[in-house]
Amino acid sequence: MDEMMKKLQAEGNAEKNWMELWLEFKTKTVSYVTNPEIWTGLLISLLKIALIFIAARLLIKIANSALQHMLIERERSPLKFDPRRTKTIGKLMGNIVTYVVNFIMILMILSQFGVSLAPVLAGAGVVGLAVGFGAQSLVKDVITGFFIIFEDQFAVGDVVQIGTFKGKVEEIGLRVTRIKSWTGEVHIIPNGAIAQVTNFSIHNSLAVLDVSVAYGADVNEAMKLLEKTVKKHFESSPNLVKEPEVLGVQMLGTSEVTLRVTAECKPNTQAAVARLLNAEIKKAFETGGIEIPYPKVVTIS
């Protein structure tokens, strides 16, 4: 009987303790929720976070505008700078500013939630060291990207050939380079994989035309007609930087005499210039009566 009474008394005490704990939790919760200082502090923290976010967006926008203004001023400066390199470095600096400002913004927002920044920075350093050892290819890509930009190997807008890929450079990032081929494909190449680059946009290009005339044609007359035609095209073509030269007889073939013409033109425009010159030369030869050799079939009866 005594044991039963003790058991009932213990259960009653336990139920009483649970009720006291619940009442204490309820009281503390109501007190916390209705405490004006808590809501005031939370509101102030939210306002600070909003101001930090807005300030970061404005800072990025102002920095990008300042960079664009600096690029425009450099283009207008009497001291001429390479616009290719200026444009590429401008994009890189804009990306760096965005990353740095966003990183600082995240740290400041975390501090508003009471997160200590010292352990976060220390952890970020340890993680960065681990990533550096574990992702050596990534580090190689980043380092190679810096050297590509600052050595001015190629820039945004250049036409380059990297390995088997040829096209126009659309973007040079810290990790990858994007080039777009003339048929529309976009090739994304890790910077660390770039071993050799051929840049077609640094210097003027040379269009080489081999024009064939028949053995029965007057070679001197054909050369004079060539000189007249290419000179006329030079005066009307914006891609030619120097008057084309008629070098003379390049080769004596089995059924034709080959005359060579060279034309210095703007970078990567040699194909377009050659097509236009070929069309003009054919028209001129037809008008001047210069025979262009072609296969003939002679029937003897």
TrEMBL record:
Q: Name one GO molecular function term.
A: mechanosensitive monoatomic ion channel activity
Keywords assigned by UniProt, alphabetized:
Cell membrane, Membrane, Transmembrane, Transmembrane helix
Q: Indicate how the chain sits in the lipid bilayer.
A: Multi-pass membrane protein
Q: Does the keyword Chloroplast apply?
A: no
The subcellular location is:
Cell membrane
**InterPro entries associated with the record:** LSM_dom_sf (IPR010920), MS_channel_1st (IPR049142), MS_channel_C (IPR049278), MscS_beta-dom_sf (IPR023408), MscS_channel_2nd (IPR006685), MscS_channel_C_sf (IPR011066), MscS_channel_TM-2 (IPR011014), YbiO_bact (IPR045276)
Record domain Mechanosensitive ion channel transmembrane helices 2/3: where: 95-136
Indicate the segments forming the Mechanosensitive ion channel MscS domain, all copies.
138-201
The record's annotation in Pfam families points to: MS_channel_1st, MS_channel_2nd, MS_channel_3rd
Any one GO CC term of this protein is: plasma membrane
Q: What is its main location?
A: membrane
Transmembrane domains' residue ranges: 38-60, 92-111, 117-139
| Location of the Mechanosensitive ion channel MscS C-terminal domain | 208-292
Can you tell me which family this protein belongs to? Belongs to the MscS (TC 1.A.23) family.
Role this protein plays? May play a role in resistance to osmotic downshock.
Provide the protein name.
Mechanosensitive ion channel family protein
Query: Which organism encodes this protein?
Result: Paenibacillus cremeus
